[in-house]
């Protein structure tokens, strides 16, 4: 099993920044990706960003490109989501995700609220 523990959510004003962290523990994999999804009230969960552990390549949703960055700390098995220039529409529960061949794991979610 894999456990994903998120932290770093909170309330911030529009234009502010937050950094989310997600620490993974349990099973290890040779090739996997970690990332973030988010779900706003009344909406489906959607992709935000991902990083591939082997080569560090990244991918972002168009709505966050240029504002969010994703990084990893291999030694800590932790992925970070740095969110800058936050907008009220970024308000959502943010979920950490780990995906490998045929398996997907989710964190419990952390609330991010951006006030206007």
Could you give a quick summary of the protein structure above?
This protein is an all-beta fold and 116 residues long. It has no helices and eleven strands.
Range of helix content:
under 10%
Q: Mean of the pLDDT scores? A: 95
Could you tell me the strand content as a percent range?
Answer: over 45%
β-strand number: 11
Largest pleated sheet: 7 strands, mixed
Category by helix and strand content:
mainly beta
User: How does the overall form come out from the CA principal axes?
Assistant: globular
* Succession of helices and strands: EEEEEEEEEEE
Total number of helices: 0
What is the end-to-end distance? 40 Å
Describe this structure in words.
- The protein is an all-beta fold.
- Strands 2, 4, 5, 6, 9, 10 and 11 form a 7-stranded mixed β-sheet that branches. It has a 4-stranded antiparallel β-sheet with strand order 1-3-8-7, with no helix packed on it.
- The model has no long low-confidence stretch (mean pLDDT 95).
């Amino acid at each position: 099993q894999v456990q994903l523990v998120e932290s770093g959510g909170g309330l911030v004003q529009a234009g502010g920044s937050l950094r989310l962290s997600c620490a993974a523990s349990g099973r290890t994999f040779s090739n996997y990706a970690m990332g973030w999804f988010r779900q706003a009230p009344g909406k489906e969960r959607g992709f935000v960003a991902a990083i591939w552990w082997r080569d560090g390549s990244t991918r972002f949703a168009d709505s966050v490109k240029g504002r969010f960055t994703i990084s990893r700390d291999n030694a800590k098995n932790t992925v970070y989501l740095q969110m800058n220039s936050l907008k009220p529409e970024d308000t959502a529960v943010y979920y950490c995700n780990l995906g490998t061949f045929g398996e997907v794991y989710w964190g419990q979610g952390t609330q991010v609220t951006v006030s206007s």
